[in-house]
Design a protein that fits this description.
Layout lengths: L1 E6 L3 E6 L2 E6 L3 H11 L4 E6 L2 E3 L2 E5 L4 E4 L1 H4 L4 E6 H13 L4 E6 L3 E7 L2 E2 L36 H11 L11 H22 L3 E5 L1 H5 L2 H9 L13 E4 L5 H8 L3
Helix pairs in contact: 3-8
The chain binds zinc ion.
């Protein structure tokens, strides 16, 4: 039997026996242990919001995991583990039937994945496309990766919470944030979107994640303003749109089993 898990920054979703479960703050080792006692699991496919390579989770700052090799805990189970945005773009590419597509998801963190000319772009450490950690401008606090100048410090769900704490103000969503935080968020959003479009020249830039789902006007905002940020030939035939998928990372992680 196959177990499919999406380890996001806030929620852990898993599917087994065609049933979907959602948990908050779940320990991955305990969860798999519990499920193996209930189901005859042979394969576990995981989409993880972090740096993964060769089925090892090297770091996942928003989940607080480091150097986790699940095979050491479960020697009789086969693991296939992939970065969550690599999984998401696989699902988006399948949905749109498009070979040149970039997924940009803003939830707890800000991540991206790209399939260009039909190839998933991975890099030698399987950590290409870390758009959230591209230097943007200095923030008065650190990103989960240890730097203080990441896009993710301005344009993510965790950024909004960090700014509220820093400013000693009570807000936890983009809508409720003060103008200064909103303006920085929008500038970082445009900077990130334009960087992805200018670098990869995709047919589709698809946005998703909790912050996008809760603030869908951001798609309109990007479409309206992208001309001022991206290389213009790359905008001639582009579609910038919101994801139509629910749990794209989980769906993409299921594609890893093909
Ligand atoms: Zn960072």
């Amino acid at each position: 039997m196959n177990l499919y898990i999406d380890m996001g920054g806030t929620y852990l979703r898993y599917e087994i026996d065609n049933k979907l479960f959602i948990e908050k703050e779940s320990n991955i080792v305990m969860l798999i242990k519990k499920l193996t006692q209930k189901y005859p699991i042979k394969w576990v496919f995981i989409s993880c919001a972090g740096h993964t390579q060769n089925n090892i989770i090297y770091s996942a700052p928003n989940i607080d995991i480091k150097n986790l090799n699940l095979k050491e805990y479960f020697p009789n189970i086969n693991f296939i583990i992939e970065n969550d945005l690599n999984c998401a773009v696989l699902a988006e590419s399948r949905y749109f039937n498009e070979k040149n597509i970039v997924a940009f998801y803003i939830g707890t963190g800000a991540g991206s994945g790209a399939i260009i000319d039909g190839h998933l772009i991975k890099g030698i450490e399987n950590s290409a496309l870390e758009i959230g950690h591209i230097p943007f401008r200095k923030a008065p606090f650190l990103c989960g990766c240890g730097k203080d100048n990441c896009i993710e410090n301005f344009c993510s769900g965790s950024a909004i919470k960090k700014w509220a704490k820093y400013l000693k103000q009570d807000f936890n969503t983009f809508t409720k944030a003060p103008k200064e935080v909103k303006d920085n968020f929008l500038e970082a959003l445009m900077f990130a979107s334009a960087t992805l479009i200018t670098l990869f020249n995709p047919k589709i830039l698809v946005l998703g994640g909790g912050v996008i789902e809760n603030n869908q006007f951001l798609i309109k905002y990007i479409n309206k303003n992208i001309k001022k940020y991206a290389f213009s030939p790359n905008l001639k035939n582009i579609l910038i749109t919101k994801t139509k998928l629910k749990n794209a990372s989980l769906q993409g992680c299921k594609l890893l089993s093909n």
